[in-house]
Amino acid sequence: MDFLRPTTWEEALAAKADQPESVPIQGGTDVMVEINFDVRRPVALLDLSQVPELRDWEMAGGLCRVGAGVPYTRIIDELGGPLPGLAQASRTVGSPQIRNRGSVGGNLGAASPAGDSHPPLLAAGAVVEAESRDRGVRMIPAAEFYRGVKRSALEPDELIRAVHVPPATGPQYFSKVGTRNAMVIAVCSFAIALHPGEGRVGTGIGSAAPTPRRALEAEALLAAELDWTAPLDPTLLKRFGELCAAAAAPIDDVRGTAGYRVHAIGVMARRTLTWAWNDHLGRRAA
Ligand SMILES: Cc1cc2nc3c(=O)[nH]c(=O)nc-3n(C[C@H](O)[C@H](O)[C@H](O)COP(=O)(O)OP(=O)(O)OC[C@H]3O[C@@H](n4cnc5c(N)ncnc54)[C@H](O)[C@@H]3O)c2cc1C
User: Locate the FAD-binding PCMH-type domain: which residues (predicted)?
Assistant: First the structure.
């Protein structure tokens, strides 16, 4: 197995263009498990851990541009203010060791329907920055990035450079059901982001369909019927939960049944909207 170790972004893009079959490795918390269990035997590993351009985040053009290699620990410590949904989801990932090495870039690269960063990225309206040596930068909205179980819109010669996330303008929450409280892959998960300035609520469903996805009809319902100055109407809340549940298309597997997941998505949708709405009204009153 070849081991490629670029030290600049340009070298990394050149290596991927010259050897598109090489497998990028950032924190290695997915890749090394797959290699150790013989799930895959790459002809070449492309180690991105020495590429400084991937290691930082910045505010650029009104968006938070999070480098693909920024580990969860730093998102939790440094980005809880602008990206509360992503930070809350990051706190639920694995253990401290996994959060020290694992990255959002790796979560996106793996494109597992159960990845915890996906629902908050969808709810916030994030955009993935991908790049190839020969075709340059491509901006892919998160909603178009996920293409199937562990399949993404990335081309073989592309790498993820960063993810651009609008800073929160309202409350955001993430909720995850697991078989225990820590070190657990989501049975299913849900994220919500209020965008009061736009009169809109963003959603993200995790681990309850072949890909992470938004609950579009539920979002449309709230955009049409929410009164942003009033307490939540219980009938609207119930209908929101039902539409979120209806947007899920889960399977039965070892972690849970499809029926349980549909039910849990409805519960989490109602719960997270209630939490967020209470925060929203509290901020208005303050
Ligand atoms: C014990 C344990 C617990 C875990 N718990 C959770 C959990 O609770 N929630 C959760 O979501 N995940 C969990 N994971 C999975 C994993 O930690 C996450 O998916 C993490 O985000 C992967 O990041 P990484 O940097 O380690 O990725 P890597 O393993 O380095 O890479 C993951 C994938 O992304 C690709 N990739 C990496 N960087 C790039 C790039 N820049 N461009 C293109 N492709 C790229 C790789 O080729 C690979 O396919 C767990 C893993 C372990 C071992």
Answer: 1-170
pTM here?
0.98
Q: How far apart are the first and last CA of the chain?
A: 60
Pocket perturbation via mutation, ligand 1, pick of 65, 107, 161 by most ligand atoms within 8 A of CB: 107
| 16, 21, 29: residue to mutate for ligand 1 pocket, most atoms within 8 A of CB | 29
d(CA 148, CA 251): 14
Q: How far apart are CA 115 and CA 68, in angstroms?
A: 15
Q: Which CATH architecture has domain 172-285?
A: 2-Layer Sandwich (3.30)
Ligand 1 atom, smallest distance to 30 CA = 29
User: How far is it, in rounded angstroms, from Cα 286 to Cα 281?
Assistant: 9
